[in-house]
């Protein structure tokens, strides 16, 4: 394992960055929950800290990163420090992460950011401290230039979870490729290919990190895309087509749903015969009274989606931005000029008449990808969920909001896996095994399935 000859605070910051890098390896596999990484370091003979175990949670329902790292470190956990990019999940039914660290003898835990859901935020920290474990949180207990950089990386790695918890919609990225003169296709609609092969490879990776990819009807008619993640990572995002009228071709690459699922979202009552055709091909059709990006984002939030990639044309992109559901932009700029007064642009009409109304990206990054330039930035800053001390005048409002009537029904909601008692939901991937009359174990997919 790697060892470092750094100051203790520098080592803390570097270990948290490593935990965040490990957590990022499971991007696309953990929805609706965050990504977790864990690094365990113990004192060496010469007094320096040395990494003795590291792991990440592979996907939703799999073993926690902390448990895997403890198993990798073995006996060297006793008296060691565990570095976590995020406070672990510590709910009614899953306390494995905290239990593993306590039983292994971990004496100190350094955490990048707190858990994003309010009903779980701080629970693991309190549980560890109650057992005598020293817990330090970046930005609260540890403050330095190095820890600021590590804290920023932790927020970026779990930005989808932070946006989802704060705005109650999936983290949404708008991606497009355009020429140097701002066109995404020629006057005739031809667009293959604006960007280079290197840029398209990055797009495959971006899709692989997303739970769903959204396009509009124009993209299906003009480009006939596949929207696959041909990067070999194993994760397959849902392909979504938004179309009010269902004026779509009967034959399209997206209608091949054998390997990659496709969903079509449309206005209620649109082309019933075409809906039946899609259903016969295995395409799920979802109808809305009024189809727009906001209701789609709300729907995907309720379905547990964490991250969504919008690869649509300018009209739908403008609607999504106006609806406030786009949080980040990935723009590939190719060194090409095609001109054309009627050639489409990446974003349609937003109703702006002055430059002072322009939307300015935050934390802008530039990267050369082959001959292209990739520009990324946020339209909404990454939410900061660090605890705040309320002002005296706010204290009474908080107490009033927390009051309740003894006559209220004691209802425990657990339909969604992110509810306070979500571990009991049939959407929560925590199987249980109970012995049957023959002495064998019968596995129930979830606690809810056992109840039923």
UniProtKB/TrEMBL annotation:
Its EC number is 1.1.1.193. It comes from the Eukaryota. Keywords: Multifunctional enzyme, NADP, Oxidoreductase. One of its GO terms (molecular function) is 5-amino-6-(5-phosphoribosylamino)uracil reductase activity. Gene3D superfamilies: Cytidine Deaminase, domain 2, Dihydrofolate Reductase, subunit A, YbiA-like. Pathway: Cofactor biosynthesis; riboflavin biosynthesis; 5-amino-6-(D-ribitylamino)uracil from GTP: step 3/4. It comes from Genlisea aurea. InterPro entries: CMP_dCMP_dom, Cytidine_deaminase-like, DHFR-like_dom_sf, Eubact_RibD, RibD_C, RibDG_C, Riboflavin_Biosynth_HTPR, YbiA-like_sf. One of its GO terms (biological process) is riboflavin biosynthetic process. It is an enzyme of class 1 (oxidoreductase). This is 5-amino-6-(5-phosphoribosylamino)uracil reductase. Residues 10-124 form the CMP/dCMP-type deaminase domain. NCBIfam families: eubact_ribD, ribD_Cterm. It holds the Pfam family RibD_C. The keyword Oxidoreductase applies.
């Amino acid at each position: 394992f790697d060892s470092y000859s750094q100051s203790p605070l520098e080592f803390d910051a570097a270990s948290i960055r490593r935990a965040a890098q490990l957590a990022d390896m499971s991007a696309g596999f953990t929805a609706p929950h965050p990504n977790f990484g864990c690094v365990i370091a113990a004192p060496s003979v010469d007094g320096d800290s040395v990494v003795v175990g590291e792991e990440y949670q592979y996907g939703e329902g799999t073993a926690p990163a902390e448990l895997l790292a403890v198993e990798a470190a073995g006996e060297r956990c006793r008296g060691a420090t565990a570095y976590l990019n995020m406070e672990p999940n510590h709910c009614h039914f899953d306390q494995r992460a905290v239990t593993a660290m306590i039983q292994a003898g971990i004496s100190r835990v350094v955490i990048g950011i707190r858990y994003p859901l309010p009903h779980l935020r701080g629970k693991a920290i309190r549980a560890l401290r109650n057992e005598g474990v020293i817990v330090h949180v970046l930005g609260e207990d540890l403050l330095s230039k190095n820890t600021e950089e590590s804290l920023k990386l932790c927020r970026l790695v779990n930005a989808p979870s932070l946006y989802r918890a704060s705005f109650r919609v999936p983290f949404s990225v708008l991606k497009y490729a355009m020429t140097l003169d701002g066109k995404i296709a020629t006057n005739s609609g031809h667009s293959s290919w604006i960007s280079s092969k290197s840029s398209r490879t990055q797009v495959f990776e971006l899709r692989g990190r997303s739970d769903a990819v959204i396009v509009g009807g124009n993209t299906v008619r003009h480009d006939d895309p596949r929207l696959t993640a041909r990067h070999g990572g194993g994760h397959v995002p849902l392909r979504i087509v938004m179309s009010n009228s269902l004026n779509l071709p009967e034959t399209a690459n997206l209608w091949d749903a054998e390997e990659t699922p496709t969903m079509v979202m449309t206005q209620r009552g649109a082309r019933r015969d075409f809906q039946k055709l899609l259903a016969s091909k295995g395409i799920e059709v979802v109808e809305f009274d009024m189809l727009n990006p906001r209701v789609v984002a709300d729907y995907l939030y309720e379905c547990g989606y964490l991250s969504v990639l919008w690869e649509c044309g300018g009209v739908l992109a403008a609607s999504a931005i106006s609806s406030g559901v786009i949080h980040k932009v990935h723009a590939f700029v190719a060194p090409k000029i095609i001109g054309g007064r009627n050639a489409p642009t990446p974003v349609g009409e937003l109703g702006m008449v002055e430059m002072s109304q322009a939307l300015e990206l935050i934390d802008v990054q530039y990267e050369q990808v082959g001959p292209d330039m990739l520009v990324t930035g946020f339209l909404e800053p990454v939410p900061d969920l660090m605890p705040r001390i309320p002002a005296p005048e706010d204290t009474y409002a908080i107490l009033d909001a927390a009051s309740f009537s003894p006559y209220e029904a004691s209802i425990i909601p657990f339909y969604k896996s992110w509810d306070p008692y979500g571990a009991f939901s049939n959407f929560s991937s925590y199987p249980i095994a109970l012995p049957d009359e023959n002495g064998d174990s019968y596995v129930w997919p979830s606690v809810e399935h056992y109840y039923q």
